[in-house]
Amino acid sequence: MKTLDGKDLELVLRLASDLRANPELGFKEIKSSGIIRSYWERIGLKVESYGTGLKAYIEGKGVGPTVALIGELDSVVSPDNPMAVPNGNAHACGHYI
Length: 97
Hints:
Elements: H1 6-21, E1 24-25, H2 30-42, E2 46-50, E3 53-57, E4 74-77, E5 89-90
Parallel strand pairs: 1-4
Antiparallel strand pairs: 2-3, 4-5
């Protein structure tokens, strides 16, 4: 895996903004998972796909515990939510508020 720097942080913030602006419903996150997969492969991660779900491996340099990071890409139909896009979908999780 390549060492990440400030340019990577800028890209990750742009990707996050794009994902929030284009919410996709569960099991239909085709564009979203493609964006994430492309970025992960670009930085050298081994990626496996499970439908629209993804799993990546980050290899450490030594023996030690394994850490799992989990993220959700799906949105919900929420037309009254102020964060909803014109199709009524929104990433309505509390961590965006």
